[in-house]
Amino acid sequence: MSLNEQVLSYPIPGDAALEPPAEWAELRGKCPVAHVKLPSGDQATLLTRYEDVKQVLADPRFTRRLNAPDAARMSAEGGGVFNSEMATIIPDGGEEHQHWRRLVGKWFTAKRMTALRPAMAEIAERLIDDMVKRGRPGDLKASLGFPLPVYVICDMLGVPAADRDRFSYWSDTLLNLTRYGQAEIEAAQGEFVQYMSEHIAAKRAEPGDDLLSALIAAGGPEDGGLSDIQILVTGMALLVAGHETTANMIGKMVSMLLADRSRWERLLADPSLIRTAVEETLRLDANSGFGLPRYLREETEVSGTVLPRGTTVVCSMAAANRDESAFEAAAEMDLSRSPNPHLAFGAGAHSCLGQALARTELQVVLEVLLRKLPSLELAVPVEELERVEGLAVGGLRTVPVRW
Amino acid sequence: MKVTVDEAKCCGAGQCVLIAPEVFDQREDDGIVILLEPEPGEEQHALVRVAAAVCPAAAIGLS
Ligand code: HEM
Ligand code: SF4
Known about the structure:
The complex is a heterodimer of chains A (403) and B (63).
Chain A: E1 8-9, H1 23-30, E2 33-37, E3 43-47, H2 50-57, E4 62-63, H3 80-83, H4 94-105, H5 110-134, E5 138-139, H6 140-145, H7 147-157, H8 164-175, H9 182-205, H10 211-217, H11 228-241, H12 244-259, H13 261-269, H14 274-284, E6 292-296, E7 300-302, E8 305-307, E9 312-315, H15 317-320, H16 355-372, E10 377-378, E11 400-402
Parallel strand pairs in A: 1-2, 3-9
Antiparallel strand pairs in A: 2-3, 4-6, 5-11, 6-9, 7-8, 10-11
Helix pairs in contact in A: 5-7, 5-16, 8-9, 9-11, 12-16, 14-16
Chain B: E1 3-5, H1 15-19, E2 24-26, E3 33-35, H2 45-54, E4 60-62
Bound molecules: protoporphyrin IX containing FE and iron/sulfur cluster (SF4).
């Protein structure tokens, strides 16, 4: 049976932690608009070509209203972050979304990120020193990948980093599509809302120099600011978004660069490649997670196929990022590739708000690691790295390293 | 080379500023792109092309 007739189960399992499933190339070549079955049993349409994914992500007809009654559910348990009601509180499109984006976006400009660099480097150095003190081998994910982005985002939001274990759990219940039951997810979300409301009330009473205090100071919708519930959800969204994505990417980036140690050596010899190397690992991340689902409000055509209204589309940015028609030698890791218009952060009006932050964190981590631990290597064969299953955001279970 | 930016499309990702800080900046109050140099010098052309290619919102035009 060819891919055309068969209904593939999605996500497509990947055997090797850092390698793409063989199906991607086949889908891009022969079946760019494919029927797939989601973990919930519902059907969706999978896109894997660069041009299609880029076009759909930037097209407002493909909405994020995954809570529509006829939208596919991601998983039987309800679908975590994608299908949640909460996702509807941040405006989905048009002027309202742009307004929200600009109010929050000013905290994520390139200049602000550059200003955060020294503090980030200090945190990275301290975390690496602690890992070294604990002795070889270390788990780079637990020692550095996870804590660093949490310290940074907690600081931006003015929430205590000491509460990070709770954030981790709350994020996980939102982002893990298969691990938790509906009751547990709801209970966790309730606690998270409670926590964030109390935190915002405290900021209201005693403002600090942080993003949430600034959103509160901007006033309500009548003053051009956000409503209370929008501030609440923005805080939660930033905490979750700033947490698992970058944390997992740090582990994957370092693993990809150490998997073939000549890459690491090239970076040691020429640290000016750090910026392009980070982009290339984002492009080649074969384990980036679920992809982005979109719900189609009106009939549209993609790659010559008519998609009826009510279709749920899943965009695989990771498959698109390996499309030969968009990237020369797409399967090869080229640490100096430029330009590198990969789709790891999405595209269009919704493309990742935190991308300058994520890029800065990844660059700083790599720079500090190369400087402090030039002898770094994986402590296990690449084949033994294991994926975390079921996450909307892909990651590795552990990243064992020695130096 | 003439550069244009579309403020309405810009999503404030700051890629352009990171790549070509002499040509692009971002407004303090909302992160939207500011074009510093509509006709950048020769030495900036390569960087500006990279910035235009990677702008996630396709907000940078070159002619
Ligand atoms: C390597 C790390 C990261 C990756 C791969 C990533 C990826 C993405 C992607 C693909 C989207 C698009 C979602 C869509 O179109 O529906 C997105 C949106 C978003 N990201 Fe990230 N992200 C990362 C880090 C961060 C960080 C550090 C933050 C902030 C603290 C952040 C905040 C956001 C927000 C707020 C949105 C929603 C933007 C909107 O709807 O306008 N992300 N991210
Ligand atoms: S890269 Fe594009 S979207 Fe980002 S700030 Fe520059 S013009 Fe705006």
